[in-house]
Amino acid sequence: MRAAQSMMLRALRSGQRQFSVAVTRPWEDKWLTLPPVSASSSASVELNQLSSTPTTALKWVVRCCPHLPRALVHKLFRLRQVRIHPATVIQQQTFKRVAAKDTLNTGDRILLPQSVKVKQTPTHSHLTPQQINFIRTLVIYKDPAILVLNKPPGMPVQGGINIKRSLDAVAAASLNYGYSQPPRLVHRLDRDCSGILVMGRTHTSTTVLHSIFREKTSRASDDIGKEKRILQRRYWALVLGCPRRPKGLVTASLGKVVVDNGRSDRITIVDNSTLMSSQHAITEYRVIASSSQGYTWLELTPLTGRKHQLRVHCAEVLGTPIVGDYKYGWQAHRKWGHFDLPNVEDSREELLNEEKLPFGLNLNKGSISENHPRLHLHCKQMVLPNISQALQNVQSASSCDLSLVEELELVADLPPYMQRSWDVTNY
């Protein structure tokens, strides 16, 4: 909580400086070279006191390239496409990969792929009125600091290979509502997951929200057993079978393994949590309802925010894979006997082509009454501090305790196909 408050104060009081990009190096045909890190870049004023904070690679890229979409910057780091030319190295073409959180020294230079010059021109700006209206119908809450959407299943949150339309790009083109900057992602949902997605509307509110979500994961162990938490997320999931206990706590570390000869990867339970690659993951669960057909509705509360955490915990720890999760529950679906699953990928393409909603979405088909059920995982409820109120308090006071700020309780309706499954299992 202190980290969130500290970042909020720094973001509010520190001025944003913009730099021009210089491309004057011998390697300019391949790399875009940013200005060298300056000694003054790590100084910030917080509560009228001068404090030195390290400049990370991510911070420097954002400062030097405010025109680049934030999602693209994070993607470059994820794909390890960012390089550094340390000031202490004399050789001109001695580069090494740099991570987003790596600390920079004075004189270091960051290099980005030249392709960002092309990518910075948005290809998503040409939206039809129908598409814009559809995206705006997804907004369930809006204030000066945040924007909240009920994300539709089947729409990726971020761009990537073979992704033509991502929610962050479309939101940037249609959900500014008069603001000079587009809304920014502060957390993510899987492509086939639906429900509450929060975006920051300003640089300051985005920074605060990032710190809240990050601190939620780093301090997850402290939240076990607490009734009131600064951030609460509750998902609804329909699973195959039923857990042995009606409620409980799953604490199982996760790790990534490469499969298909390096063509893909998946998350799995890591027994040895001391491994450097493992990430601790904690999930609370409780049974909402069970049906005579053998299905169970679960409420899942992740105390950490790991990739595929809920899906893996349900499938590998509880032994109840989520309906429609063929990545982690393929064998269970085959044994279930109620579904015909010859080729799930083909059925997904048929599903997208049959519906005439914008962006090729289909929100109706995919319930358990059909042969090819879709992923039944929905972020139904989220409780978080009223960031807009918190920022107003900071402007008029020297400190702000986020635990004392009024809470925002957000609720998102189930997509039609999940609602139909709910009706079938609870008639």
UniProtKB/TrEMBL annotation:
Signal peptide: none
Name of this chain's protein: RNA pseudouridine synthase 4, mitochondrial isoform A
Record-listed E.C. numbers: 4.2.1.70
Family: Belongs to the pseudouridine synthase RluA family.
Pfam families, sorted: PseudoU_synth_2
Domain Pseudouridine synthase RsuA/RluA-like: 146-315
InterPro entries hit by this protein: PsdUridine_synth_cat_dom_sf, PsdUridine_synth_RsuA/RluA, RluA_PseudoU_synthase
Entry's localization field: Mitochondrion
Keywords assigned: Isomerase, Lyase, Mitochondrion
A GO biological-process term: enzyme-directed rRNA pseudouridine synthesis
Isomerase is among the record's keywords: yes
GO MF annotations, alphabetized: pseudouridine synthase activity; pseudouridylate synthase activity; RNA binding
A GO CC term attached to the entry: mitochondrion
Taxonomic source organism: Glycine soja (Wild soybean)
Enzyme class: lyase
